[in-house]
Every structure is written in structure tokens, then in C-alpha cells.
Amino acid sequence: MTASVRDDLLAAGLAVFDRVGFEAATVAAIRARARASNGSFFHAFGSKKELAGALFLEVLRHYHAAVLAALDPVPDAEQGIDRLIRAHLDWVVTSRREARYLFEISRSEWGEDVRDAQRAQNARLGDGIERWRAPLVANGELLPMTPAMFVSQLIGPAQIFCRAFLSGRDRADPRVEADTLIACAIRALRPLDRITKQ
């Protein structure tokens, strides 16, 4: 089986899950969308659940790559906060189907099979952010806090707007709130005497 057949099945799975949800999706519908035979599907994936897990890891990898790209070249504290929030918002809007899958459709009950791989990917993202953040904490440019607290203060508020956008509860592009989200994150993450007057 070629990589392109697997990629076609993943893309078809994403489209079908996005349209009807995981529960209502069928292997037959995914195969039809990918124009793949039954044998090709089961050669690539043992089940719909296995395809869903592989798709989750693929989408997560794309999201993490977009976030980490914001830290190259290495920014100062405020630039980094700005770039990371904008990278999150941009990815959600420009990769809406993938973002819906990652944040709205994926389910923990079928994610157990990929939990170790997910932890490894999350650790790589965390390491990338920490390589930028740790020196800034050490020199007093960012407040000391756990990595989990840092990410929650950085991305958490933006994610509220993104979830409303992805679910259709709010049609407004969440990027319109970027400046305010960034200003709030800077106040939450930087010592008061280090904040640049805007």
C-alpha cells in the first residue's frame, strides 16, 4: 500500500467525521470518499477507531508544528506571547476542519490507543516552548509558573473564542480578538515592571 492511499483515507476520514461525526461515520463512507477498496482500508487501518486515532496524531502534529514555527527566529517575551497566540488563532481559522476534529470531535474513549504517542508529541511541543520560555523566566522577563499554567494563561482565553467559532455558536473570526487576547496574556505572564507600554 502506498503512503498516498493512507493519506487519502485519512483525508476522507477527516471529511466524513467533520460532516457526520465519529459515531455516524462508516468505513464504507470513508472508503467511498477516498475511492479506496475494502482491502486497501483494512490494510492501512484495522478499524474506523484506528483511523480516527491516526488522524488525531496527524492533526496534532500539524497544530504543534504551526505553534512551534512561531518561535523561529527566537522572539523576546512579548513577541513570543504575541506570535504564539496569533499562531494558535491562525491555525484554527485556516485549518478549521482539522481544528474541529482536534478540539471538538475527537473522543477520549477511542484515544486510549494513541495516548502514549499523544504524550510524546505533547512533550515535544512543551520542550520547544520551554526552550524559549525558561531563559526568559530566569532573567525575569516572564513570571515563574509551571509550564501547564503558562500554556493555560497563554492559550486558554483564545481557546474559548476558538471553540465558539468551531462549534458555530459564534460566526466571528476569533482573530479579531487577537490584540486584546495578547494584551491580557502579557499582563498575566510578565512582571508588571517589564511590560512595554502600548
Describe this structure in words.
With 198 residues, the chain is mainly α. The protein folds into two domains: 1-45, Arc Repressor Mutant, subunit A; 54-187, Tetracycline Repressor, domain 2, CATH 1.10.357.10. It contains ten helices and no strands. Helix 1 crosses helix 4 and helix 9 packs antiparallel against helix 10 (178-189). The longest helix is centred in the middle third of the chain and has 24 residues, at 115-138. The protein is elongated and about 65 Å long.
Quick overview of this protein structure:
Helix content is 75%, strand content 0%. It is mainly α. The protein has two domains: 1-45, Arc Repressor Mutant, subunit A; 54-187, Tetracycline Repressor, domain 2, CATH 1.10.357.
What's the arrangement of secondary structure elements?
Elements: H1 3-24, H2 27-34, H3 38-44, H4 48-69, H5 77-94, H6 96-105, H7 108-111, H8 115-138, H9 147-167, H10 178-189
Helix pairs in contact: 1-2, 1-4, 1-6, 4-5, 4-6, 4-8, 5-6, 5-9, 5-10, 9-10
